[in-house]
Hints:
By secondary structure, chain A is α/β, with parallel strands linked by helices. Chain A has helices spanning 43-50, 73-79, 96-108, 121-133, 149-161, 179-196, 207-213, 231-236, 238-245, and strands at residues 5-14, 17-27, 32-37, 58-63, 66-67, 81-83, 167-171, 199-203, 216-221, 224-229. Chain A folds into two domains: 1-80 and 165-256, 3-Layer(aba) Sandwich (Rossmann fold), CATH 3.40.50; 89-164, no CATH class. Chain A has nine helices and ten strands. A six-stranded mixed β-sheet of chain A has the order 6-7-8-3-9-10, with helices on both faces. In chain A, strands 2-1-4-5 form a four-stranded antiparallel β-sheet, covered by helices on one side. In chain A, helix 5 packs parallel to helix 6. Chain C has a two-stranded antiparallel sheet with strand order 1-2. Chain C is mainly α. At the B-C interface, helix 5, helix 10 and helix 12 of B face helix 4, helix 10 and helix 12 of C.
Amino acid sequence: MQPIVRTEQLCRNFGAVVAADNITVAISPGEVVGVIGANGAGKTTFVNMVTGYLKPSAGKIYFRDRDITRLKPRQVMRIGICRSFQIAQLFPELSVLDNLLVAVSSSDSAWPHFLKPLKSPARIAAAEQVLADYRIEGFRDTVVATLPQGVRKLVDIAMAMVSRPAVLLLDEPTSGVSVEEKFAMLDTIMAALRGAGATTLFVEHDIEIVERYATRVLAFYDGRIIADADPETALNDADVRRYVVGSQIHRRQVRE
Amino acid sequence: MATDRTLLGLTLALAALLLGVVVFPQWLTFLVMMSLARGLVVLGIVLQMRAGLVSFGQGLYYCIGGYTAAMLGSLYGVREVAVLIVAAILVSTLVALVLGTLLSRYRDIFFAMLSMAFSMILYGLLVKSPALGSTDGFNVPAMTFFGWKPEAQSTGVYILTCVLAFLIAAAYHRYQKSPAGYLAGAIRENEIRVEYLGSSAQSLLHCKYVIASVISAVGGLLSALATGHVDPEMAYWTTSGEFVFIAILGGTGHVAAPFIGSTLFSLVRTYAYQFFPYTWQMILGLVLLLIIVFLPRGLWSLVQRANSEKPRAADR
Amino acid sequence: MLTLLAIAVDGLIYASWLFMVAAGLTLIYGVMKILNMAHGSMFAIGAYTSAWIAGWYFAGGDVTWGYALMLGGAIAAGVLVGLVVERGLLRFLYGRDPVVMILLTYAVLLILEDVIKLVWGVDPYFAFQPYTLLGRTKVGPLTFSNYDFGVILVAAIIGVGLWWGLNRTRRGKLLLAVIHDREMSMALGIDVRAYFLLTFVIGSVLGCIAGAVTAPAISVAPGIGVEVIVLAFAVVVIGGLGSVGGALVGALIVGFSRATAVHLLPQVELFVIFGVMSLVLVVRPQGLFGRAQPRKI
């Protein structure tokens, strides 16, 4: 099967700091890839490069057959790769519904209409469907600036999914979210993503989450990939234990 | 519905003003004409302010609109207003397309200063051009209005001003509710997100810059017709500053605010100038300070960021 | 050939006072992240103070202390106004929305422009005695005023002084740290607020000095402040915000551009300057010595 996203020898330097060192990885359609690694290992740099926010120093990125290395974020979005952010990037003074409406209207066309109203019945229906998918109907009219962290992250992801992208990159979806909420949140997200048939890559620090949801694990260290396998194998790898998970014996916890 | 109400209000205002041409005394029609014309320039500023850009040089297009009209009239013998309107729109669009390529890359203070600089460039050019009357400027001759030659020139200008202001205001009102209108606020609040949603913030801002410029040029044209005169002051920084002041007072929320604000401002200034000719700027500055310090929400649509200092991502 | 020499010297003269004004503007921005639109007014205040002092002092017989008084007066004015603006206003409003900060400095500009008119009136000042008193030098068929060479000297001294102050003194290095990363400096215990005050006053004084030394060569009238801020802005943008070295290079570029335009086609003076600025920005949006922005996501 042709990989949906593929990188070839991807490199990125910031002065003397090597944030990405010959990253070569191929992601197949339908996979749920968990990306782990310590802070500064290069995970977000990777996501930034794939989505066009950062230009690689060397190497190439492909979406299906197409070379997307030089494309800007808005072009990458149109092709079908979207992302969420470590710190939710929302429009603070608008309501959740309005945030989604802006996303819906932008996904319709790059050039907005200047005279027809934003709030058409079709768009509102689409936005409300998204609200339902992510179980945040209750926050429909809440101004984003007042939202709790978990809901902010959900809105962030929901906005990215509005255009039904083929690939979704989630940057630390549960960071800042309380332990009680994490699993519920990811259950919701993963259900919605499965429903939309999106290939998913998520950056996570919480190994339990990675164990539970990922079909494959990429471990980053110092800009390189040190493990690329199914979760069981990757998480028990010696290097991964040393540099990422921790030197204690890795214990598996079964959760109801 | 709110939309209907505003549009209804604008239509009623238009009707009232048009009827007024018969009964209003001379000074009132002049006040209305100038307020509406200048209100259009303020509207141009407001349009950009919604995207977070403060233009201290809107006078550039105000001046371009006026001078295009005056030059065509005085130097090229044009006597039909329709030609003037088309010309003002064309010239301002051209200039805005060019300048906008640079300005749309900048935000905040850079945009503000660059816009001021460009209007001062025009001012400098005009002041040093004897062919264009230097500091005296020159006059605008009488015109026909789409073929109609009114008895009193001011009647024609008055009706034209009311109609044009109405059309532009109505369009602006629709714009506020449109995707483009919402994107202005979105760009101001989170430009990165807008990019990731698939739109080019820079292109959008460039487009808004051009539209605002055209609106301001029309304002300049109408003002030139109303007073019968243009001079380089139109591009001077103090003129632009007054437009900004009115925009701040009125806010970016409602389309009627620039016009009402402009009217009040004209009234106050006429009297203030008599008593405080040397301290008018200072009064403006102090009032602006008071608004900023005591009524930060008074600039309600302007200061709509939740935090004043955004947190930075701590790790990669 | 002669024109070239004239342009070169005039360019150097413009660059001299432009550098002093721009250095102040860029320092204030670098430390406080505020582009002070009222900075041009400091130039104007310095010019008016010095012209006024020159007016009554040089009218009498003895001119020994004239230049020192002009300079001293301007510095005093700069310190006074800088203190009043920073302590009385700015310090309460740090960290506000960028648009609010723009409007704030604009309000100060409006106020200062009228304060100038109130204190010194609206008629222009011509204080030419200090200018002509130093005599002239002939370079080939061209004549230059020795005063102008003096201005270049003052700018050079200030440039060296700034460099030494920033790079060789402890306070200066701390200031550079604050410019580089304010949050980190605060975390390290540097009293950033105190540096704000210091920088604002120094920056304002620099603007005043520039005005003071330029005053005898020009007609000091209302509105010069705004003309200057427009030029200073171009300099600072070309050189890169926060960089004093950039201000120097930018001043030279703008100075020579201006001299060229003034000698060849005066109407396009500002046009040429901003054309050059636009070219630099297209190639290097952060200015020649500016630092690229840190990542936000």
